[in-house]
Specification:
Elements: E1 5-12, H1 14-30, E2 37-43, E3 47-50, H2 63-69, E4 72-75, E5 82-85, E6 89-95, H3 98-101, H4 105-121, E7 136-138, E8 141-151, E9 154-162, E10 182-183, H5 186-190, H6 196-210
Helix pairs in contact: 4-6
Length: 216
């Protein structure tokens, strides 16, 4: 059984992590073996990303406000609309052959949701899916977003779980283009400060299990 190679990148600029993803996608696609990688990261400085179907009008803040907050904008190859990444948000990028670990793109998204729901459960939070949307919710608030890209059956981009981010930054956009729902975090839900380092090993474990990789 294949192992999921785990790389904790700490805090890193979005462009740097994206470059690593691009290298790993090529390496996995060219490898004769079933190889796979997991990057875990907090993006710092914060960034707004626009997916393939993004509506630029969903970036609400003017350029001057974004500059004052130290937030840049990046166009990306992932699916979905507009989202935010920043310190306090745990981002996971699994880079793997989805035809080896999921039946297809839709099943892969459901497996990522399952890993997030399992992770939340270990902190006493009941996450759920919302019909018609991708991601994970608690009540009517979104706690995790998912947006992936697939090249030659190799996945990249991934999921973002709000652990303890600056939730005010989500007010600078229409998150995922959804106008009638709010965004939350594990810290807000539990009423205590949750650290990203608490959540990393739990999320890594759940991703390893639901995607069918060998545990150490």
């Amino acid at each position: 059984m294949t192992k999921l190679s785990y790389d904790d990148r700490g805090r890193e600029a979005y462009a740097c992590t994206l470059a690593v993803q691009e290298q790993l996608v090529q390496a996995v696609a060219q490898s004769p073996q079933d190889t796979a990688h997991l990057l875990l990261v907090e993006h710092d400085p914060p960034v707004i990303t626009l997916g393939r179907s993004a509506n630029a009008a969903n970036v609400l803040a003017p350029t001057a406000t974004l500059e004052r907050e130290g937030i840049t904008i990046h166009q990306t190859a992932r699916g979905g609309d507009v989202t935010y990444h920043g310190p306090g948000q745990l981002v996971a990028y699994p880079i793997l052959r989805i035809n080896q670990h999921a039946g297809g793109a839709r099943e892969y998204l459901r497996l990522l949701e399952q890993a997030i729901i399992g992770t939340l459960s270990e902190f006493g939070i009941e996450g759920r899916r919302e019909a018609g949307y991708t991601g994970v919710w608690v009540g009517q608030e979104k706690v995790a977003a998912i947006g992936v890209a697939i090249r030659r059956w190799v996945s990249y981009h991934g999921l973002a779980l709000n652990v303890c981010p600056n939730l005010a930054h989500f007010g600078l956009i229409v998150p995922c283009g959804i106008t009638d729902k709010k965004v939350t975090s594990m810290t807000k839900l539990l009423g205590r400060e949750v650290q990203v380092d608490e959540v990393k090993p739990v999320l890594a474990k759940w991703l390893t299990n639901v995607l069918g990789f060998e545990n150490d």
